[in-house]
Design a protein that fits this description.
two-stranded antiparallel ribbon; 6 strands; 4-stranded parallel beta sheet; alpha/beta; 129 residues; Uracil-DNA Glycosylase, subunit E
Length: 129
């Protein structure tokens, strides 16, 4: 995100939020809670996963038109846990999975990840999951 929107990656989180809002981008996790050892998605205990309340989110922000997934796990959990409970508030949303920004994912270079993620710069009213 720092490379795409040309800010110092070490700035405070509050300053990052201002930049994202200026560019009409929201950032939210699909998963509100889960148990896992360490930080790897593969260590999540499936039976403990609780998703965020997207019904309320989409009702509160009806102009969201683009959802970008930060990797495979976010996309998988969204379609598994969120979509079945939706009531149509997501009807005009376009979905796209982008490569995980995690440094643990090394199949793609940082340069190539930035190139893929640059797609979000052209889209307003987006959320990154």
């Amino acid at each position: 995100m720092a490379a795409l929107f040309e800010f110092d990656f070490s700035i405070k989180y509050e300053e990052r939020i201002k930049i994202w809002l200026k560019n009409k981008i929201a950032l939210w996790d699909v998963i509100r809670f889960c148990e896992r050892k360490g930080s790897l998605d593969s260590n999540m205990k499936d039976r403990t996963i609780v998703e965020n309340d997207f019904g309320t989110f989409f009702s509160k922000y009806p102009n969201i038109r683009h959802v970008y997934f930060n990797g495979i796990k976010a996309e998988k959990e969204y379609f598994k846990r969120v979509i079945p409970g939706q009531s149509g508030s997501e009807r005009n949303i376009r979905y796209m999975r982008l490569p995980s920004t995690s440094p643990a994912i090394t199949q793609m270079s940082l340069k190539d990840k930035i190139l893929e993620w640059s797609k979000i710069q052209k889209m307003e009213n987006s959320i990154i999951l």
